Amino acid sequence: MKPIKRILFATDFSDASRNALAHAVRLSRDAGAELHLLHVVVTVRPSIVPRDLDNREYINPPPADLAQKRLDEVAIEAGVNVIRVIEHADTAAP
């Protein structure tokens, strides 16, 4: 089996992703692998949001600078050297 060199950890900053982060950090330490943190800033087009939706965070997601701040906090919490990446897209799913 090839050694693990890089681990990609995608986060939405939820409690569930914080729990998963602990596993990614442990695997990174055990394997001596780089840990890459990824967050996708989703740009929602108003035409695809239902009219009766009253979720302002969905309609207006946190700006990229806030996402960067949150990603930096996750990196500090991880306690290992990480590479941070923020992508912008219409959806977080492929």
Descriptive account of the structure:
It is built from three helices and three strands, in the order E-H-E-H-H-E. The protein is an alpha/beta fold. The longest helix has 17 residues. The protein is globular and about 40 Å long.
The H-and-E topology, N to C, reads as: EHEHHE
Rg, rounded, reads 15 Å
- The count of β-strands is 3
- The number of distinct helices, counting runs of at least 4 residues, comes to 3
Residues in β-strands, percent: 15-25%
Instruction: Kindly report the average pLDDT value.
Output: 78
Order of strands across the main sheet: 1-2-3
Task: Report the principal-axis shape.
Answer: globular
Distance between the termini: 28 Å
Main β sheet profile: 3 strands, parallel
> Helix coverage percent of residues?
25-40%
Name the poorly predicted regions: none
Q: Supply the helix-strand structural class.
A: alpha/beta
